[in-house]
Structure formats: C-alpha cells, structure tokens
C-alpha cells in the first residue's frame, strides 16, 4: 500500500492533505489504477523520472498488475503533486527522499518532517526576497528606457 500525506498525517481533528487540487482526469477511488504513461501525461514527468523516483524511494512501492505493469493510485497522484511542489521550492532531492522516508516511518517523525519543511520555507522566502529585489531593478530599468523614448533625440551639431 502506498503511504500518503493524508493517510499518515491524519489526526483526530484534521487531515493535512497535499497542497494541490485533484487532477482533472482523476478516477473514483477503487477505480483508480493509472498506467505509468497516464501518470506521465497527468504530471508532466517522464516515465523514466517516475521509475527513478520509485527506485530512489521518493515514491513508495507502486502496485503492479498481474503482468508487472505499474498501477498508480489517486494517493500516488496526490503524492506526486506534492513532490512537484517541493521541486518548485528548490528542495534537494536528498531532502525530498528523507521527507518520504520519515513519512513512511510514521507519526513519531512529524516534528522532523516539520523542521525539513520549515527550512525549505526559509529558503523559499530568501529566494522570493532576492527575486523581489531583482524585479525592482528590472522595473527601474524599464522605467528608465520608457522615459528615454519620450525624450526626443537632439540633433548632433
């Protein structure tokens, strides 16, 4: 069985689900058996990347059909959506794998998982600040060139 954020991080008062909306082609639970090519199409990840994620432990064991083909489920898609968000943060793959390992270990690792996410959030905030500074420079330069175009050229003497 695949371990997901929702299954592992459920408490009696709340469920901490992945941060994305369901995929548009999502099937009802119980009928949710997706081939690797379907998952690749849904997620934008290549089949090679999906196999690699499984090999390095970023994706836990994926069920197989009687012919050995991988069969992904809705919780697998949810997890891959979350991994996609982590990738966008710039989190190193090793940290993503560590997070996945901790998640599979269970509730007693919640604090360590939280710390990993908090460190990533700090990194993201730093990058956002750097990008905002860069944006301000670009805005200044664009304003400069917009103003320069309004000033007529002086004829040379």
Overview of the molecule:
By secondary structure, the protein is mainly alpha-helical. Helices cover 59% and strands 3% of the residues. The protein is built from 6 helices and 2 strands. A two-stranded antiparallel ribbon has the order 1-2. A hairpin with a 5-residue loop joins strand 1 and strand 2. Helix 5 runs antiparallel to helix 6. It is elongated, with a radius of gyration of 23 Å. The termini are far apart. The N terminus is likely disordered.
Q: Any chance you could write out the topology, listing elements then pairs?
A:
Layout: H1 5-8, H2 36-43, H3 47-56, E1 63-64, E2 70-71, H4 74-89, H5 93-105, H6 110-150
Antiparallel strand pairs: 1-2
Summed up, what is this model?
59% of the residues lie in helices and 3% in strands. It has helices at residues 5-8, 36-43, 47-56, 74-89, 93-105, 110-150, and strands at 63-64, 70-71.
List keywords for this structure.
mainly alpha, two-stranded antiparallel ribbon, 6 helices, 59% helix
Largest sheet: 2 strands, antiparallel
In helices, the fraction of residues equals: 55-70%
The general outline is elongated
List the helices and strands in order.
Answer: HHHEEHHH
Chain-averaged pLDDT = 85
What is the beta-strand fraction? under 5%
Number of strands: 2
Give the helix/strand class.
Answer: mainly alpha
Task: Tell me the Rg in angstroms.
Answer: 23 Å
Low-confidence stretches: 1-17
The helix count comes to 6
Can you list the strand order of the major beta sheet?
A: 1-2
Euclidean distance between termini CA atoms: 82 Å
């Amino acid at each position: 069985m695949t371990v997901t954020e929702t299954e592992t991080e459920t408490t009696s008062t709340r469920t901490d689900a992945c941060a994305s909306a369901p995929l548009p082609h999502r099937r009802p639970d119980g009928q949710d058996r997706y081939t690797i090519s379907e998952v690749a199409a849904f997620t934008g990840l290549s089949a090679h990347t999906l196999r690699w994620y499984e090999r390095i432990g970023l994706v836990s064991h994926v069920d197989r059909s009687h012919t050995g083909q991988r069969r992904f489920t809705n919780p697998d898609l949810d997890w891959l959506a979350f991994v996609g968000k982590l990738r966008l943060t710039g989190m190193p793959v090793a940290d993503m794998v560590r997070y996945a390992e901790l998640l599979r270990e269970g509730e007693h690792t919640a604090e360590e998982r939280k710390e990993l996410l908090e460190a990533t959030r700090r990194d993201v905030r730093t990058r956002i600040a750097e990008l905002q500074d860069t944006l301000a420079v670009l805005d200044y330069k664009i304003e400069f060139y917009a103003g320069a175009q309004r000033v007529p050229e002086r004829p040379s003497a």
